Amino acid sequence: METVLVVLFDNVQSLDVTGPVEVFNGAELHRPGTYRIRTASPDGAPVRTSSGLTLVPDHAFADAPPAHTLLVPGGAGTRRPDERVVAWLREHGPRAGRLVSVCSGALLLAAAGLLDGHRATSHWSVCEKLAREYPGVEVDPDPIYIRDGRLATSAGVTSGIDLALALVEEDLDREVALSVARHLVVFLRRPGNQAQFSAQLAAQTAQREPLREVQQWITEHPGADLSVETLAARARLSPRHFARAFQTETGMTPGRYVDRVRLEHARRLLEDTADGVEEISRACGYGTPEAMRRSFVRTLGAAPAEYRRRFRPATTH
Questions:
Q1: Are both 58 and 175 inside the same structural domain?
Q2: Which of 69, 152, 229, 310 could cysteine-pair with 4, CB 3.0–4.6 Å?
Q3: Where is the signal peptide (predicted)?
């Protein structure tokens, strides 16, 4: 039985705690004797989450059991971290078999010196702070989670569930992880390298309704003619005016937005279907498999076929 110890502190993000805990608990219910889940706060006192919930820990740090998986959640409480938490992590983190952070919990691991020399991620809103204040950490703001040896860091809230499912699959097997995912009604298919942002989230939502409608239309029709001229006509603007207004209101050129939408759609089809690369390239508006290959290599560092081999899960019967 492996102990999963969750660190609690005031203003912790409740979902950063409960999401992974539900995954590990689900695995324990599916295969009893696998995980023992415990929580600990600096003095053993209840903590109040950022959403107002109160969590009662099992232990104070002083009597917390040794952890195979030491899980550090994020939340508003990481902005001005409790020095007792940082000091305890500095001492006990190296003893854990596996260090895991969710969201801005990476800031606590970094403050304890546990991320130096390692690649890590966090919630997109704190990655700049993480990189600036801890230059010894190789911060990658894009993936939803990163594994680097015994260290595992994840982005915001729900990505902690994705990471926990990946850890359960590693510890036990895919059948258990799939069973837990089905029970929680979440995907088991999100690989760690999946970007935190969809194209729609990466760009700002335009203020003017015609531009918002164009954004939505691009998302729903990635295989269509998405030239500036065609999109401008849909917005009832001149191409020059449209391109300037789109970038001003979304922070992204029309071409860049179209590229991200097409790449995102192609990735989903590679992960979720058995469609051929040529068929997918047409469906996503690339025109030719070579154009799609160039986009994948430029952005993801892997050709479509290689991407599918790496990140499409095996079929489970």
A1: yes
A2: 69
A3: none
pLDDT 10s digits, 14-24: 999 999 999 99
Q: How many helices (H) and strands (E) does the chain have?
A: 14, 11
Known active-site residue 284: no
Q: Model pTM?
A: 0.67
- Residue 155 CA from chain centroid, whole number: 4
Strand duo 54-55 + 47-48: pairing: antiparallel
pLDDT digits (tens, 9 = 90+) for 10-59: 999 999 999 999 999 999 999 999 999 999 999 999 999 999 999 999 99
Nearest-10 Cα torsion for 204, 207, 209, 211: -50
Catalytic residue (choose from 8, 15, 27, 103): 103
Q: Does residue 282 lie within any of the structural domains?
A: yes
Strand ranges in 28-80 using DSSP code E only, listed in sequence order: 35-41, 47-48, 54-55, 59-60, 69-72
Helix (H) or strand (E) holding 101: strand 98-101
CATH no. for residue 282?
Answer: 1.10.10.60
Which amino acid is present at 36?
A: R
In a domain, 174, yes or no: yes
